[in-house]
Specification:
This protein is of the alpha+beta class. It is built from 2 helices and 6 strands. Strand 2 and strand 3 form a beta hairpin.
Length: about 90
């Protein structure tokens, strides 16, 4: 919590969620734009494991509307590089 991440050239601050069942919320640092809720409550991301590789392969096929979406934040959490999950 409180960490600043860069997704597609924009900076977001990770905060506690306000949406039920989610683990994180990412809001733009400059305050302009919408916040994104992502991550399942009670679930731990473990990059560089078979579970991580499975998630990255599955989520690589999710197509957004062209902008930033919750999938982009979740893939950053799992440290996905293509269809593989890498160590930090």
């Amino acid at each position: 919590m409180g960490k600043v991440v860069t997704i597609k050239g924009k900076k977001f601050k990770i905060k506690p969620p306000t949406r039920k069942g989610k683990k994180y919320k990412a809001c733009p640092v400059n305050g302009l734009g919408k916040c994104y809720h992502f991550g399942a409550k009670g679930f731990h991301a473990r990059p560089n494991t078979p579970k991580g590789n499975n998630y990255c392969a599955r989520s690589s096929g999710i197509k957004g509307k062209g902008g930033i979406g919750p999938n982009d934040f979740a893939r950053a959490l799992w440290n996905c590089n293509g269809k593989k999950s890498m160590s930090r």
